[in-house]
Amino acid sequence: MYVFLKGLWKEHPIFRQLLGMCPTLAVTNTARNGLFMGLAVIFVLFFASCIVSLIKKIIPHEVRIAVYTVIIATLVTIVDIFFKAFFPDVSRALGPYVPLIIVNCIILGRCEAFASKNRLLPSLLDALGMGVGFCWGLFLLGSIRELFGSGNILGFTIFPACYNPLVVMILPAGAFLVLGFLVSAMNCIENRRKR
Amino acid sequence: MNELILIFISTLLVNNLVLSYFLGICPFLGVSGKIESSIGMGMAVTFVMTMATTISWLIYHLLLLKFDLIFLEYVAFILVIASLVQIVEMFIRKFSSSLYQSLGIYLPLITTNCAILGVALFMVTKKYEFFEAVIFGFSGGLGFSLVLLIMAGIREELNFADVPGNFKGAPITLITAGLLALIFMGFSGLVSS
Predict the structure, then answer these.
(1) Domain spans of chain A, in order of start
(2) In Å, how far are B83, B121, B138 from B143, measured between CA atoms?
(3) ipTM metric
(4) Of A69, A168, A180, Cβ closest to residue B174
(5) Which of A14, A25, A59, B87 is at 20 to 30 A from B185, Cα to Cα?
């Protein structure tokens, strides 16, 4: 159970390990985009861990990174085609950041650090924990940016119409600022718990 | 010619890979601690990015389009990048040991630098011609190096600053990057596209 839970908070991929920054910052201009990116990462991470954990004995040690990358690239191609077919608007909004999941260091990192050394069940739990942790991080970041940037969350209006949106929140600069403050808030909570 | 210069300036300053597309953030946060190492990383990335974009363009247009294999785009590109990094590493080790000393440790990191794959993918979506693609790759790498260098300079000074406890390390770096992105937004009028 610990294997699953550590990804949600203690070793949170975004706020604690600072992995996978590129999709984290790029697609979280709305909560919906963040959520879809998170789901895509959960899918790829889950099945990549599953495959790597099953064939870990067959892969020659020297080329293992290349093998992992090809497995991940294949899974990402599936996700990309799926999004294009069923959620064309999401596919357009995420654009090249869907294929960029391939080089998301969380996935390669979990395959290398965990799935290649553990049996199937722990690997799956680990992947699921990390994926869900990543997903809620993206959703939180996306919600904050959407809330301040346009006054909505998931399209529902939260702030009254007289609210003057902070456009900078949707722009790249806002992503860095919000993430910086979120990480420091995380540090603050963690430091207080230690005391 | 005009087109090429426009692409160069727009990729270098206006649509900077790091600050407006968030590509290559991992090395940007990881290696920007010292000016010296950021120069090494910047050179390695510029070199590999130019080569990778060139070769990916050739593969995409001469192989994938011709034989209707576009669904293999991602797998092909990532294989090109991974093998390119490997070849470049072996080549540099053989021919210039001083260059290898300065770039060596950064080369393996480049495979997972999303900026390289990102540039290759953008080149396809923007439908660039051959020379446009080469310039795009080169200026993308230069833009990455530029931002990395600025950031390393700031962070070396930041070591002497009195940062509040919870902001030490990653948070203050991210906020600095945010301010840098705000500054780079000032370039946005330079090229209208």
Answers:
(1) 2-138
(2) 24, 17, 9
(3) 0.82
(4) A180
(5) A14
Query: Which three-class secondary structure state does DSSP give residue B127?
Result: coil
Q: Is residue B138 part of a domain?
A: yes
Which chain B residues have a beta carbon less than 8 Å from that of A170?
A: none
Written as six digits, the tokens of B175 are 């906020």
The residue of chain B nearest to residue A26, with distances taken between CA atoms, is B22
Smallest CA–CA distance, residue B116 to chain A, in Å, is 10
Interface contact A180-B82, CB threshold 8 A? no
What is the 8-class DSSP label of residue A111? I
Contact criterion met (CB below 8 Å) for A47 and A123: no
Q: Shortest Cα distance from B117 to chain A (angstroms)?
A: 7
Asked if the structure places residue B84 within a domain, the reply is yes
DSSP summary character for residue A163: -
- Burial label for B130, CB within 10 Å (0-12, 13-18, 19+), is exposed
pLDDT digits (tens, 9 = 90+) for B102-134: 666 667 777 777 888 889 888 888 888 899 999
Q: Rounded to an integer, what is the distance from CA A94 to the centroid of its chain?
A: 13
| Cβ pair A173:B179 closer than 8 A | yes
Q: Which residues contact A110 (CB under 8 A, 6 or more apart)?
A: A45, A48, A49, A126, A127, A130
Phi-psi group of A155: left, alpha or beta (phi > 0 → left; psi -120 to 50 → alpha; rest → beta): left
What pLDDT does B103 receive?
66
Please give the tally of structural domains in chain B: 1
* CB-side neighbour CA atoms (13 Å) of B1: 0
The mean-pLDDT minimum among A91-95, B27-31, B146-150, B160-164 falls in B27-31
| From A23, A65, A184, residue closest to B171, measured CB to CB | A184
d(CA A129, CA A139): 15
Range of the domain at B145: 17-188
Selected residue of A22, A41, A84 to mutate for chain B interface (largest B Cβ count, 10 A): A22
